[in-house]
Amino acid sequence: MKKIIVSIIAFSLLAVSCSDFIEKEQRGTQTLENYFQTAQECENYANELTQRLLLAKDWWTLTAPRVTNEMSTDDAWMGNTGQDSGAHRPCSQYIITPDNMGDMNSIYTAHYYTIQSANIGLERMVQSPITDAQKNQYMGESLFVRAYCYYELVNLFGGVPLYTKSLGTGDLTLQRSSAAEVYAQIETDLKDAAAKLESAPVNRDGRINKWAAYALLARVSLFQEKWAEAKTYSNKVITEGPFQLEADFLNIWNVNNHNGVESILEAQSSSIQNRDLGAALPTLSGARGEDKKNFPSNDAADVLDGWGWCMPTSDLENAYLSENDVIRRRSTITKWGEAAYGDEVLNPTHKFSLNDNKSGRICRKYYIPIATRRSLDKKDGHLPLNIPLIRLAEMYLTRAEANYHLGGDALADINIIRARVKLDPKTGISGPTLLRQIYKERRLELAFEGLRLFDIRREKDPTTGRPVIESLMGPNGTFVKYNLSSTDPYETTNLREPQDKGINFDPSKHLLWPIPQVEIDLSGNVIKQNPGY
């Protein structure tokens, strides 16, 4: 291995001082050799790794590409029709090429930066003169971070370069490992993380713990169709973990309910208006073109003007309507002129610029209530909304899907999820009908929580045996045909985002995104491109 992949090695070339990664004052000349000497230093390093994974300080690093993935599904339009969409268009409209990746470049680069950093930390912490319990805590968290990076990379790009040791300038040209090899490493890291975190206290301050490791194991097992393992790990979280479903679905995304009883892992934020502490998502996907005259107070303090990206589709709304699913619909989608659910008094007719909004809808899960807006000194895109990444409801749905394939009771779990939102239980369904209902419940429950693209790529249509996305997208896709014949009064009157969303989907290549061409070039063509690109 001889050549450098810049996105992987960038940190190791700069990390001699740790100053870029560990945000603390240097003490004389600080090097990797003398940094990891105290529990506080190891904790700071693990904390920074976690933040870099879950809520990067710059919105475009991870938040934007994760939102772009939502826009590539039947749940969301790009939405903002008043600004340049170049970062989101390649994926959303399936015109992506290795040289035109939009913001998908940044997540690839950022995750390898974090993987290299995790490897450095793991190598140094094991030698640190701290207690074994402290080592287990911080190394367990670091292992989870590395696993999560690879989980996203393998689902976005397929098999990717895999390494678990810090790399220097003289020992690189990494070929791509297979997706199976990457998944195997993810599982190894998560099992190791869970074991190391076994005795760590499970508290509510948002730290990574063993339950996050088991929950992600359940997810990656499901994604690999390892049904028995998916059932084992999801059942373990459900039956042994300290979590319970929120009684009120809307409360999951409540700015005053950080790390609630259902939350297994969420990206942390704070009401302290510091760029390092707040969430950019409510601004990135907030309503664009709010005006104080549209609020009862007529007060500019109530306005939080968002950028308007990632707007819900009427197709998603129709999925809720088909189940008479009022609670999850209103908790997920606010239509122009409707009251913001849970904020009806202060925002009884949420209005925004229809000229700049494709669908006349916004995502309620990302909404900042008026009372919170009034308390903010700044509205700069760094806001006090935690972002749930893994929660208990997903474990019920994972167990349901695993049980379907194992011949267990899948209906019981989806009915638990339905009961929470006051829907009647499903009875007397089986076979393909039951599997489609499980898929639908995942869509309705987890919309805009980062799973839809991965789900429709890996779910199999019970009629064709092909990935579900193939029946939705492309010239003959049901989602494309719906939009082309739609009479929705908002979507069809703002055509600055084309109505034929998804028509360019090609199943021979679009089950994965391409590897960025710059990475292939920098590897001396050792990294090979995904088929079709």
TrEMBL record:
Family as reported in the entry's similarity comment: Belongs to the SusD family.
Matching InterPro entries: SusD-like_N (IPR033985), SusD_RagB_dom (IPR012944), TPR-like_helical_dom_sf (IPR011990)
Coiled coil residues, start to end: none
CDD domains from the UniProt entry: SusD
Localization per Swiss-Prot or TrEMBL: Cell outer membrane
Domain SusD-like N-terminal: 66-222
Organism from which the protein derives: Flavobacterium anhuiense
UniProt cross-references to Pfam families, sorted A to Z: SusD-like_3, SusD_RagB
Lineage: Bacteria, Pseudomonadati, Bacteroidota, Flavobacteriia, Flavobacteriales
Keywords: Cell outer membrane, Membrane, Signal
Principal localisation: membrane
SUPFAM superfamilies: TPR-like (SSF48452)
Domain of life per record: Bacteria
Name by which UniProt lists this protein: Starch-binding associating with outer membrane
Domain RagB/SusD, residue spans: 347-533
